[in-house]
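Progress narrative, work stream C.
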Amino acid sequence: MLNYMKEIIDGIRNNDNIKFNKSIADRLEYLIDVTDEDIELGQYPLAQQSLESFVEFITNNSVPIYPGLALTPIGNIYAKWKIKQNQFISIEFTNNEKVKYVGFKLNNEGGVSRASGEIKFKEIPRYINHYVSPKVFHNLISDVVINDKRTEVNN
């Protein structure tokens, strides 16, 4: 593992303001270790910008649900927060200013609404709001203000 990645992961582990900081750091180290065996010399499985975006997100948003974490084949972090049966949001933290997301939400007819797409990194809280009930969302993301049924991200 490169030194800067180790420093970033150690920063997660030592930041008590990040929920599940030690478990998240351990999982990221595990993902790197198991994929290191298959990587050619000089190449690393975890994309630096993906790691930095993920760290920014978990540092600035207090999410009380432990995320399932995986790496995509190109080294992006894929995080999934399961709210309850058939309701979750997953985000792929890519190597640019955008993220890819998939969301499932129970609808009023007893079915499941699904959505996926690519959005700007700073718009993540607005999309999470759509997939999580307002009560859970209030606890999930502290940087969002709900006004007149609109969601705005505080910058």
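Work stream C, second folded protein:
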Amino acid sequence: MSVRIISSGEPCGGVIVRCDGIVTGKELVEVNDTVAHEPGQRYQLWDFTDADFVQVSFDEIQKLAIQDSSIPRDCELQAVLIVGSSRSLENLTDTYETFSKRWVGRQRQYKTEMFETLSEARNWLIENLGISDLD
């Protein structure tokens, strides 16, 4: 599978997902179903830096947004971070943001942020959430 959870939960309340090779929307939806039920998450970091291609439909992006809007209320999700630099990934991020805010009705006020490198995402986590223990 080209999409897999590499870290979750303690010590910093984050879920890190690594994507590589050819990534399909079906894989993203399957893994995100698990991610959406992870207890105690403050952030999700989706790393697409090793992805060669991301193939996802509008319906699949909407499913991702619906999954994230159903995260249990006791989780304090503050951010969904997407790391990668392709134009298709920018489109995916923009569409996810639109679906999660306008069509699904975001239940929480978490941020969606996109970064070109993991270093930029880690710096954002340090500056905005006070999280520095990533790995």
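Residues 3-86+110-116 form a domain with the Transcription Regulator spoIIAA fold (CATH 3.30.750). No further action is required on this item.
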